[in-house]
Amino acid sequence: MQRLPVVRSLLHRKDFRALYSTRLVGQFGDGFFQAALASFVLFSPEREPNATAIAVAFGILLLPYSLVGPFAGVFLDRWLRRNILVRANLLKALLTIPVIAAVLAGSESVILGICVLAVLGVGRFILAGLSASLPHVVSGKELIYANALTPTSGTIAFVVGATTGLGIRQLFGGGDSGSVALLLFSIGTFISAAFIARTFAVHALGPTHQLKASMVDSLRGVTGDLLVGVRTLSAHREAARALTLVAFNRISFGVITAGALLLLRNTFHQSSNANAALADFAILSGFAAAAALIAAILTPWVSRKIGIPRWSALTVAQASIGMVLFAVAAIQENFPLLLVAGFSLGFAGQAVKVCSDTVIQRKIPDESLGRVFSLFDMSVNVALVSGIILVALLAPVSGVAPIVYIGVGVGLALASIWYWRSGSQNPV
After folding, report:
1. pLDDT tens for residues 387-404?
2. Does the N-terminal or the C-terminal CB of the chain have fewer CB atoms within 10 Å?
3. Higher-confidence residue: 397 or 65?
């Protein structure tokens, strides 16, 4: 049970606690924010989403940031990360105000999409900054424990925020007024996260070798710096393979997200019974979060015993079985089996992410770490939307598409075999 003393040791460090708290409070607010959006756009009785609508919604939210994210990563290596965490959280709070205005107007227009994109884009920038900052407050063998604890706890904080938010929404009468209440609560959490980040010393989170340049010079140098980041990643094959495996796994997560939304809205429940569908989706999310917690507890210990590549490969292999179970659940309209599938994918997603974060942080020099993590975010977002688009193109509005789900499961199995073999040749 070595991991418990290690966790206690981490929590005794002031800077780690501050970075950890910044993540938890910020992602708790993200849960409020996205619960408000989900209830407004996807789980409103008068709004019945199909696969294409879901794909468009996620595409608007994720793909544009995937294109600009690497540019933001350059600034993680040019600007003081402590200042980024403070100012970006305050910017999120400010950008939430026009989202509130759009919801009050009942607007699902492009303007709402752009406003939401801005908030989530800044949020992804903050998460990349938190990952790049972590090696400055934790080092050595404790790093994998920190990578297991912080993103997993952040995910759980997000789910708790979303679940709590749904309850708060009902207290405020549900509907659009309830969504506005959640958005106001999220503003408070974003401001709180900014004040927590402000407790760091200015230079505490790096970058160690700050690239000093004016704003204009920084923008001019973005492309060249990105190429350096890409070359850095390609020169460290273990890190590149780890990133690739996460992207493969994230495709399956996009598939199960879109598939579950369609199944719960249009097959497991009457399309007019949006509240029941929303409650079931919250339960499914809770199962995935619980799986992520278990994966975070097991990953440091198991990966130390058998190696990061083998553990990552095994978790993806079991996720391939989870996708097959998801296909069976869709055919039989079996909600418990759907929960098992969600648990399987949640477990794999967190285990692979913890391992990949650790490989990248160990292998990539600090002066390039911000750029690589932003490229990592870009890959994850593109893969997630690719999975959702796959469902939009191939699944009916009912969400019952067993061939699609089984095909994705086969793809995960092949990715698992590839990573196992590459890990045997190049153990991390």
Report:
1. 988 988 898 888 999 999
2. N
3. 397
Rounded Cα distance, 343 and 394, in Å: 24
Question: Which are the contacts of 271, defined by CB distance < 8 A and separation ≥ 6?
Answer: 48, 265
User: If you search the block for the tokens 């590839």, which residue do you land on?
Assistant: 418
**Which residues lie below 8 Å from residue 233, measured CB to CB, with a gap of 6+?**
239, 240, 243, 364, 372, 375
Q: Cα(275)–Cα(269) distance, rounded to whole angstroms?
A: 10
Strand partners, 47: 44
Is it true that the peptide bond before 402 is cis, omega within 30 degrees of 0? Answer: no
Distance, in Å, from the CA atom of 384 to the CA atom of 361, rounded to the nearest integer, reads 23
More confident residue, 375 or 283: 283
Sorted by sequence, the CB contacts under 8 Å of residue 409 that are 6+ apart come out as 252, 319, 320, 321, 322, 323, 324, 327
**324/407 Cα distance (integer angstroms):** 9
pLDDT bucket at 273, cuts 50 / 70 / 90: confident
Cα 382 to Cα 59, 130, 155, 241, 325, distances in angstroms: 9, 21, 19, 17, 25
Q: At 140, phi and psi to the nearest 5?
A: 65, -145
Count CA atoms within 13 Å of residue 64 on its CB side. Answer: 15
> Is the CB of residue 420 less than 8 Å from the CB of residue 263?
no
d(CA 182, CA 37): 9
With vertex at residue 323, the alpha carbon angle to CA 319 and CA 324, rounded to the nearest 5 degrees, is: 120
Query: Can you tell me the distance from the alpha carbon of 385 to that of 381, in angstroms, rounded to the nearest whole number?
Result: 6
**Ordered domains of the chain (ranges, CATH):** 3-203+228-425 (1.20.1250.20)
d(CA 190, CA 86): 10
Decide: 378 and 245 in contact? Cβ < 8 Å: no
